[in-house]
Structure formats: C-alpha cells, structure tokens
Specification:
Layout (H helix, E strand, L loop, with lengths): L15 E5 L8 H13 L4 E5 L1 H12 L1 H9 L5 H16 L1 E4 L4 E2 L3 H4 L6 E4 L27 E4 L4 H15 L3 H4 L2 H8 L2 H9 L8 E3 L1 H5 L1 E2 L39
C-alpha cells in the first residue's frame, strides 16, 4: 500500500469549485447551463472542470505513479468510483469545494461558508430524501451516511487522509464475492460507506461544521429529478452506463486481492 504523505492542514477553504466529467467538449446542455449559473453566482471563485486526462495528470503530479496505478485498478466502466477516489485525492491536496456534476449552488458560497470553516459535513434530509443513506452497515450511526457528492474542505484535512487510507485499502483487497458489484460494490469500496466509516472514527478529533447542506448552504444535490424512474428526467442520463446497472467486478485483478 502506498504511503499517503500527510499534508499540513490549510487555514481556510480555498475559493475554488471543482467538478469532473469524462469530457469537456459537447457537454449536455443542462450541465453546461449549470456550470454557467455556478460561475455567475460565485464571481470571486475559480471554477475548474476536469476530464479524464486532467484527472490522471493531477494524480500523477500530487501522488505519483503508485497512486495512479491504484486508480487504474478501478474498472473504467465504474466512472463513479474513479470519481470518488479522485475527489478525495484532489481536495486533500488542493482544498476547495468539490461538487458532483449534477449538483449546484443556489446561494453565493461567500455568504454561506465561514472564514474558520475547515470541513463541511452533512447528512440526508430525511423528509426530502426519505430513507437515503440508511444502510444496514451504518445502523449504529445516527442518520446514516455522510454525503460525499460534495467534499468541502481545507487542503490537508485529516478526515480526507483517513478516507484515502480506507479507500486505497478497500481497492487493494477488493473481492467481488464478498464486497459485491454495482451499487453495493461502489458504496462499500470508494463511496459513502467507506467515507463515513473513516470520518466517524476520528470525527471528534478535528475541526468541522455539520450542516443541512441544502437548507443551510443552498448547495443542491441534483439539478435533475432524482426521484424519477425515467432515465431522461433523472441524473442517470448523464452517465455512459450508470454504475447501479453494472454486474462486473469493480476492481480489476490485483495480486494483493488474493492475500
């Protein structure tokens, strides 16, 4: 397992908004319009959009070939899992506000983020998203998972160091027979289960602010209708094939999996 170098925590959250998509050309109109709105609402912030080539370059720059090799162990069909790992690596190294491509801001970030914020945590609103995030594995954690469609943090925050250690360990020792594929494989290996377990174990030890992200900060999960079963109306339409529909192993064969 590669050593994840400890980075000194920054004094504040940098004014940079990060989003990723597999291409930066010919974006679906709703996504391009969303980027335009985010930029207009946050004129004092830099917006960065990363495609697949950008992602690999950033991982190589900040973490080296060993980490890039681990990233490549994730089957490219699981773009969501690759995006999970990248967001943790990116925000740990650079800090800022990471938002899923389908997510948006409705209030200026300058108005809702505090100068002394170092990390933002949030859970699902049980009224609007009934039952979301309440996985059996998290039965002992009140309100279930911490959301990770947004990662808002100062660079070097210990929460993300812990998350990276957990996720890399999960990737290197992944076994489809026990961890699963598709939805279960992703949430357990790189997604909200791994994220929540890592943070909850050290949560009282480091600075953070827990909020109701949509109500308190105006940061919205999706510009699409997340409840619709119609693929043309919900956010699944922006994926090549949504990870919940996959039945192949999440991780390519790795000798350490046999250990």
């Amino acid at each position: 397992m590669p050593n994840i170098t400890t980075i000194a925590m920054g004094e504040r959250i940098p004014k940079v908004i990060h989003q990723t998509y597999y291409t930066k050309t010919n974006l679906p109109v709703p996504l391009q319009e969303n980027i335009n709105r985010i930029r207009l609402l946050n004129p004092g912030w830099e917006h960065r959009l990363y495609d697949d080539a950008d992602i690999e370059g950033i991982i190589l720059q900040h973490y080296g070939q060993d980490m890039l090799d681990i990233y490549h162990l994730i089957d490219p069909a699981y773009g969501a899992a690759r995006a999970d790992l990248f967001r943790y690596l990116l925000i740990y190294a650079q800090g800022g506000v990471y938002l899923d491509m389908k997510s948006t801001t409705t209030r200026p970030l300058d108005e809702v983020l505090w100068p002394d914020d170092h990390y933002i945590l949030s859970k699902w609103d049980g009224n609007k998203y009934y039952g979301w995030g309440l996985h059996p594995e998290l039965a002992g954690i009140e309100r279930g998972e911490f959301q990770q469609w947004h990662v808002i943090a100062a660079a070097g925050h210990p929460f993300l160091h812990a998350v990276l250690e957990q996720v890399v360990r999960n990737i290197l020792h992944y076994k489809a027979a026990t961890i699963g594929v598709g939805f279960k494989g992703v949430i357990r290996t790189t997604g909200p289960l791994a994220y929540t377990f890592a943070i909850e174990a050290i949560r009282p030890l480091h600075p953070y602010r827990q909020v109701e992200i949509e109500h308190d900060l105006g940061v919205i999960y999706s510009i699409y209708d997340s409840s619709s079963a119609d693929r043309n109306k919900n956010h699944r339409q922006i994926s090549k094939k949504h990870y919940t529909e996959l039945d192949i192993p999440l991780i390519k064969y790795n000798p350490q999996q046999a250990a």
